[in-house]
Amino acid sequence: MILITGCAKLTPTKQPIKSNPKLPVVKEFKAYPDRNAIALFWSPVPTMSGYYIQRYDFKHKKWVQIATIKNPYKSIYVDTKLKPAHIYKYKIATFDKNGIPSLAKQTQSSTLPPLSPVIPLEAKPLTKGSVKIIFRPHTNERVYEYIIERFNDEKAKWEEIDTLTPRLNVEYIDKDLKDGKIYKYRIIAKSFDDIKSLPSKTIVVSTYPKPPVILNVTATTNLPKKIVVKFSPVKNAIYYKIYISSTPNGYFKFYKTTKSNTFVDYINKDGFIRYYKVTAVSAHKTESLLSETPAVMGETLPKPATPIVSTNRYSNTIEFIFTSPDNRAEKYLIIKKEKISLFKSIEKKFITKSNNFKDTINPKHSYEYKIYEVDKYGLISKKPAIVEVSK
Predict the structure, then answer these.
(1) Do 295 and 328 belong together in one domain?
(2) Is 212 a domain residue?
(3) Were both Cys, which of 20, 44, 101, 192 would link to 75 (CB 3.0–4.6 Å)?
(4) How many CB atoms lie within 10 A of CB 80?
(5) Residue 210 — very low, low, confident or very high, per pLDDT cuts 50/70/90?
(6) In the listed set 206, 241, 267, which residue is the last one of a domain according to the structure?
């Protein structure tokens, strides 16, 4: 048996104007379908020079020659690259040594339907930005590949994103997806002879969502050498990420993590300002949106203000009266410098919790007093009040 195949090219060729009804004809002409091909079988007519085979073009409503077989002993022709589940009509005629055809014999067949669709079994999110799909291996052993398609919402169309081989490889993991978004997939099986199945049912799966944005963040401004950041806990968060910046609208860089909803930032500076943002992280490593998280300002306690000092001088006594501008003074530090001669001076320190201080002086000497405010944390005002007492 000799097999002849041909593709579905609808290119007309010139035919004899008339058939000769006296020429021998093909008596048996049958069609046997596959999904993308139809095999034509006929009883050979060895006394003729060959055969013309035509296929009907339904679109243009005419017969088109698809093959000229010049060996009269051949009896099979396979028409390939056809569409599944379509009806095809054929004619076959013998021709003599001058190319004159006989009367044609006609047959009809329908290609087989496409491969059955793949059956999805499971679809679930895995970790941050990834999902997993499992489906049943196709029952047709001619299948060697699966085409994975994902629906593009912006373009409103299905797009091929990957392929899997061989037939038993039925697990697909999609990565680098957006958090908290619904994705749609479908799977198409493909056989060794390029037959595609119908698409599977649409598989809908959502990635794990981001935790909610933390809005109620507070930061202290009245503690020495540290800033305490507090916020309400987020359900299902396994830890929190602290971001910092020197400006409220600047770049916030990652700083530290904490499992508590209270974070203590130890800073060995007075009056130091820092801005904070806090995000929540879930067990699936998804993180609340930093860009939508409001910034909060924190500040270490600044140094106390310079005290306001008034004096009353007597013959050998001077009285100081202190006033705290920021009401933070717990006590006052007085540094007394007594100038005895041109090159000699004596320095003494006094601490008082009272806002009134008296000191005995020598009318023949000059004095300089530096008065500092000291708060309850032991912070000392950056600049002192200076009182000079002349001879």
Answers:
(1) no
(2) no
(3) 44
(4) 14
(5) very high
(6) 206
Q: What is the CATH number of the domain that holds 239?
A: 2.60.40.10
The answer on pLDDT for 2 being more than 50 is no
Helices (H), 261-305: none
Give the whole-angstrom CA distance, residue 185 versus residue 124: 12
- Partnered with residue 296 across adjacent β-strands are 276
Cβ neighbours around 239 below 10 Å, total: 13
CB atoms closer than 10 angstroms to residue 126: 14
322: left (phi over 0), alpha (psi -120 to 50) or beta: beta
The DSSP call for residue 260 is S
CA nearest to 219, candidates 188, 243, 191: 243
Listed residues 178, 206, 234: the one ending a domain:
206
> Are both 26 and 102 inside the same structural domain?
yes
Range of the domain at 344: 308-389
Question: Other C-beta atoms within 10 Å of 108: how many?
Answer: 11
Is 179:209 a contact under the CB 8 Å cutoff?
Answer: yes
pTM of the model: 0.68
Contact 123, 203 (CB under 8 A): yes
Q: Are residues 133 and 178 in the same domain?
A: yes
Q: How far apart are CA 127 and CA 203, in angstroms?
A: 18
Evaluate whether residue 229 is within a structural domain: yes
- Contacts (Cβ under 8 Å, ≥6 apart) of 216: 231, 232
Q: Is residue 211 part of a domain?
A: no
Dist. CA 2–CA 334, nearest whole Å: 119
Together in a domain, 315 and 352: yes
**Mean pLDDT, rounded, of the chain:** 93
**129 assigned to some structural domain:** yes
Query: What is the arithmetic mean of pLDDT over 91-103?
Result: 95
By DSSP bridging, strand 87-95 and strand 131-135 are unpaired
Q: Over 70: is that where the pLDDT of 9 sits? A: no
Length of the chain: 391
- Is the distance from CB of 24 to CB of 45 less than 8 angstroms? yes
State how far the alpha carbon of 169 is from the alpha carbons of 76, 134, 166, 281, in Å.
Answer: 37, 9, 6, 34
CA 169, CA 189: separation in Å to the nearest integer? 12
The verdict on whether omega for the bond into residue 166 sits within 30 degrees of 0, i.e. cis, is yes
